[in-house]
Amino acid sequence: MWDGLPNPSQVRLSRRAMLGRAIAVGLSLASTVPLLQGCGTTNAIESSLNFANWASAETATRNDINKAVRAFEQQNNVQVNNIGIPFDETLAQLTQLIHANITIDVMELSGNLPYALAGIDALADLGPFVATDWYQDAFPNSFAAGTYKGVLYAVPFSITPHGFWYNKTMLSRAGLNAAHPPRTMNELNQALRVLRAKLPASSYPIALDTSATEYALVGFWPWIWTFGGNPMADDGKGNVTINWADDGTVAAFQWLQDAVRNNWTPPNLAIKAERQLMAEGTVVFKLDGPYLTGILGSINPAFSTVQQVNATFGVTTTPTGPGITQPVTCADIHNLSIGSSSTNKNLAWKLIDFLTTSPAVITTFLIPEGGMLPRRSYDITPRLYSRYYADPISRAFIDSIIPTMRPPAYGPRYSTAALAIVTALREIANGATVRPRLLKLTDEVRAIYA
User: Fold this and answer.
1) Which domains does the chain carry?
2) Considering the entire predicted model, what is its pTM?
3) Rounded-to-integer distance, Cα 205 and Cα 264, Å
4) Distance separating the N- and C-terminal Cα atoms of the chain
5) How much is the pLDDT for 44?
6) Residues 90-102 as b or e (16 or more Cβ within 10 Å = b)
C-alpha cells in the first residue's frame, strides 16, 4: 500500500503528504483548509508535528482546539498537522497509522488507550520530561492512569472522573432530602424504592449503562469496587489476577440485575441516551463526568448556564459500602502521549507543555470542554483559574470526587477483555443467572490473558 512513499520515520511529513496518507487510511484531518495554508508562504517553518486528537473531530470542541494549535504554531514557528479522529475510533485509527509507519508525535488518549499503545511499543517514556513540581501538583492517581509496568506513557490533560449526579428537584418532589443525597448503598436503595413508587412510569430513579460498549465498564467499575469486588488486580508489573466471581463482584452484578428488574433503571441504554433522559428530567441519579454540565445545556436550553445546572442538579461521591468504607470512582481522564517513533520528542513535549499550561489553551479549550485542569493549583488558586470553578458542582469534583479516583487494571489486553465483560454485563442485566455467568466470564477473561 505504501510502496514508493518515503518512510515517515526517516523524514518529516509535509502537510500535503500527511493529508494524503491520512486519507489513504481513512482518517479525516480537522480543518483541512487551515492545515494546507502556509504551504506557499515565505516564512520558513522550522519543524512540524503530527497531533492526533478527538477534540478536532467533534463540532463542540473543534474550533477551540484549532485556535490553541494555531497559537502554538505562531509562538514556535512550527506547523502542527492537527488530525481529528472520532473518539470511538481512536485506538483503531492510531493503530492503523502506526502499523503503516506514519509518525504521530502527540496523541490525545483516554482510559486504556495508553496501555494498548504502550503494549505495541508505540509510546515514548515521558518520565524524563516531567518536572517534579507537576507530580507534586497533580491530583491523586492522575499520573497512575498513564503508567504501565512502572513507565509513564501518558500525562494528564483533562481530569474527568465520574461523580454521582442527582436531580435535586426530582428528589424534593418525591419527598426526599435534596440536601442529603444517598451516601451509602443502603440509603441509595431506600431512595430508589421511594422514587420508583412516586415517579411516573416514564421516569427512572437511576441510569446504569448496560450497553455492549467498553465505556459501560468505565461506569460500572465504581459499583463493583463499592460492593467490595476486585475481579482484575494488577500487581504493578503487568500481571493480572482474574476472578470475576468473587463475592463483591457477584453482589454488584446482582444489584444491577435487581435494578433492571425493579424498573429502577432504563434497560439497554448507553450513556448518551441516559444523558438525554437526565436533561429531560426523567432520571434522578447517574454517574458522569464534570463535562455533564455543558452536555445538559447543549440538550436542554433550560440548563444553558452553569447557574441553571447547579440550581437543578448536584453531584457528590459514589455511595459507600457494603464492601468499602471510602467512596471510589474510576480514573477516567484524558491524557497526552508522545509517539515512540517521533524524531523530535523535545518539540512534541513542548506542545504537551503548551497544551497543559498555556492560558490560550486553558481559557479557550480546556475550561470550555468541561474537565478540570491537570495541575491542581490551577483549579484552586484565585490568581489562576479557580474563578471558573467556583460553582458547587465544580467544587465537589475538585474537593471530593477527584481524590477518590483509581485506575482499573488497564493493560494491552484490557480492551479485548472489556468486550467480553460488557457482554456478560448486558446478559446479566437482561436476566442471566449471576454467579454462573460470572464464572464463565472468569474463564473467558483468563483465556484472553493467557
Assistant:
1) 15-160+333-406 (3.40.190.10), 163-330+413-449 (3.40.190.10)
2) 0.88
3) 5
4) 33
5) 62
6) bbebbeebbeeeb
